[in-house]
Amino acid sequence: MKTIKFSPDKLLEKTQLIDNTEDLAKFFKQINKAAVIAVDVESAAFYKYYARINLIQIATDKHAAILDPQKITDFTPFKDFVAKSKAVWLVHGGEYDIAMLATDLSICIHNICDIKKAAELMGYDQLGLSALSERFLGFKLDKKLQRCDWSKRPLTDAMKRYAILDSICLVPIYKCIKDEIAKAGRTKWLKEESDKVAEKACNTQPQKPDPYAFLIKGSNRLGKRGLAILRSVWNFREDLAKKMDRAPFMILTNKDLLDIARQAPKSMAGLAAVTQVNEKFLKKHGAALQKAIKEGASASLTDLERPNGRYKPHEVPLTAWEGMLLASLKEIRVELANKLGISPGVLVSSQALYEIVREKPETLGELIQSEIVHEWQAREIAASMLPVLQQEPPASAKKKKRRTRRKEQGVGRRE
User: Fold this and answer.
1) Nearest partner of 19 among 56, 50, 47, 48, judged by Cα
2) Radius of gyration of the chain from its Cα atoms, rounded to whole angstroms
3) What are the domain boundaries of the chain?
């Protein structure tokens, strides 16, 4: 295993904090010949209702900068640089970062290398950036500020150090891991995986509001009247969270909502007994919350369940025979993954196996064209799995009803 002697001190000392377009343009002139550039973003989404980029960190092997989107009003130099540069942009688990740059700033970075994908393809037990930094650089990243409120200004020295270190470390980690990927013959795999991350991130569409988002864990134990109250207080919390730009759970927790829906308190004292919110909140918003409870208590009991019923479109129950095929494919997946030294879920996910069983592709070409899996995955699994799919079900299996238990199918499980 290749390792590098590493110290971030020199780059930390000359890290720039950029808060205007003029300095932004100067920085990109400094790095215009860099072949490899690391990028990372920080967001205060844990604290805020509206997720926005609050910091952007960029590093090469010679330069490092923290960009402040709360102060920079024009990101044209960044956009122009991305459009012209042939550099490889390094990320770690980068779908969120690339998507935030695309949606917030209209900066679409396509030529990326996702270091987390590289670690998955090498079958490493630990995929976190701190673990990879220790593995290759002998340097442990401190993650104490991971959930810091990155919208706060001014930035402390500790915040600036934490923010830029991830990007600084990505460049030497890449130099190590790309050699291991090449030796394993998996460079094309990594390119395909990274391209898919960038494609998905740059095409991220705003999520449509889910009218059934109030059906949270535990709501299945409520009666219809309780569900009506839950929906009403859920909407109250959403409206207030938007107005205050605060994370909904910081206003009322899901447990608070369920307790309110279950007990339907009719007085301020009752509300105080049910919820954990402080007196100041109840003084300011208690009347509106009581109003929401009353509206739920008298609301229509229709439209409280998802119209599609129990199953989502991608979770239609399999027949008994299809369930047997799925079980066989899962066994094959484990064998193939063990030979490759990677996680079964990296080779092919359980959801993808379910879709393969539904589609039943007959050839490698059909499997690739289905886009259920990536091309490298299709080439690795086709020879072993396609013959299983081509088997004819026994006469008795054809007559059996479709299974209705998701547990039997293995659909939706985590790897």
Assistant:
1) 56
2) 26
3) 9-202, 219-298, 313-409
Distance separating the N- and C-terminal Cα atoms of the chain:
27
**What are the structure tokens assigned to 78, written together?**
């960044």
At residue 70's C-alpha, the angle toward residues 27 and 55, to 5°, is: 60
Q: Which two tokens stand for residue 382?
A: 């086709």
Q: Which of 138, 137, 165, 156 is nearest to 11 (CA)?
A: 165
Query: Taking the C-alpha atoms of 15, 19, 21 and 23 in order, what is their torsion angle to the nearest 10 degrees?
Result: -30
Q: 9-202 and 219-298: same fold? A: no
Task: Name the region of 138 (left: φ>0; alpha: ψ -120 to 50; beta: rest).
Answer: left
Say what the pTM is: 0.87
CATH number, domain 219-298, options 2.70.98.10, 3.40.640.10, 3.40.50.150, 1.10.150.80: 1.10.150.80
For residue 319, give the 3-state DSSP assignment.
Answer: strand
pLDDT, tens digit (0-9, with 9 covering 90-100), for 309-353: 555 555 678 889 999 999 999 999 999 999 999 999 999 999 999
Question: pLDDT tens digits, residue range 66-81?
Answer: 999 999 999 999 999 9
pLDDT of 151 above 90: yes
| Domain 9-202, CATH | 3.30.420.10
The CATH-assigned architecture of domain 313-409 is: Orthogonal Bundle (1.10)
